[in-house]
């Protein structure tokens, strides 16, 4: 009997062991691979979760302002000389000779007032003047006669002095009546309304037959006259810019009715005081208007070019943090942590502010930071590149 099957039987258990071991090894490798993959996914999710908790911010880089600061303000245009014309005497309007828009010369007749009551007073005073003159003539004759009688001792000196005093009193009364008559005649001359200077009639507030009361406290003016060959423009300058407004500086005027034209003007004076109610400085400019192209009473845009202060940064107003500790901005460090910095403001330009100290040109300033942002907070920058600050501060707040 052959012995060959015996080795085969001996090798069979060994192979089985190798096979089982290989299977266990493969299973172990699969389990390890699954564990590593699961852990990697878990770590990735954890990292994403941590990142999602970081605040995403937009940063800007501070920049210096331009060398010239444009400033646009509203202005009110008025004639260089303008005046309301009131009546100086009571009566009724007899006739008017000029209407609105009429160009008149100084002394030109604008209207006439009928003054019946005043005319009667003048007639009465003239009669009183004649009576006073007659009484004076008689008193003078009597005084001279009594003086001659004193020489012959026909009358006493006392009686002569009394006649002289009576003549003097009647002379004084005559002068009083004459002065009253002259006053009435002067009032009567005011029934002719004349232009006080060359100009244009801008208003006529009366008509024929209308009752006229003298003075400015008793009604409307009869006429309004303006000399618009030169114009005055009044501008209220915010306190922030008041130090830059100087006498002699020039400005450009823009009018909505002349959109393609620019008119030069010169600053001639300021109020030299800040109005408490508005915190503004009133500035007065003048412009030539020989052709009377610009009408008084219109609205103007006044464009100033002001020098900017050197070494002053500008930031959008949205970067500011108003804290009880003081005014701050939030900056981002190189390792993406928040660094709160105290700043000092210059002028408030409306949508932007000037910063005189507290930041540098290398800082990355967070725009629109949340109120809860704190020192040392970790943030993520929205863009890889810093966004330069772009502000338009041509108009004041």
Automatic annotation (TrEMBL):
Q: State the UniProt keywords alphabetically.
A: Membrane, Transmembrane, Transmembrane helix
Q: Which residues form the Multidrug resistance protein MdtA-like alpha-helical hairpin domain?
A: 126-174
Q: Does the keyword Zinc apply?
A: no
Give the stretches traversing the membrane: 17-36
GO cellular component entries:
efflux pump complex
**Any one Gene Ontology molecular-function term assigned to this protein's record:** efflux transmembrane transporter activity
Q: Which InterPro entries match?
A: Beta-barrel_RND_2, MdtA-like_BSH, MdtA-like_HH, RND_pump_MFP
- Asked if the record carries the keyword Lyase, the reply is no
Every CusB-like beta-barrel domain range = 234-305
All copies of the Multidrug resistance protein MdtA-like barrel-sandwich hybrid domain together span: 84-218
PANTHER family xref list? MULTIDRUG RESISTANCE PROTEIN MDTA, RAGD PROTEIN
Similarity section: Belongs to the membrane fusion protein (MFP) (TC 8.A.1) family.
UniProt-listed NCBIfam families: RND_mfp
Query: Know the name of this protein?
Result: Efflux transporter, RND family, MFP subunit
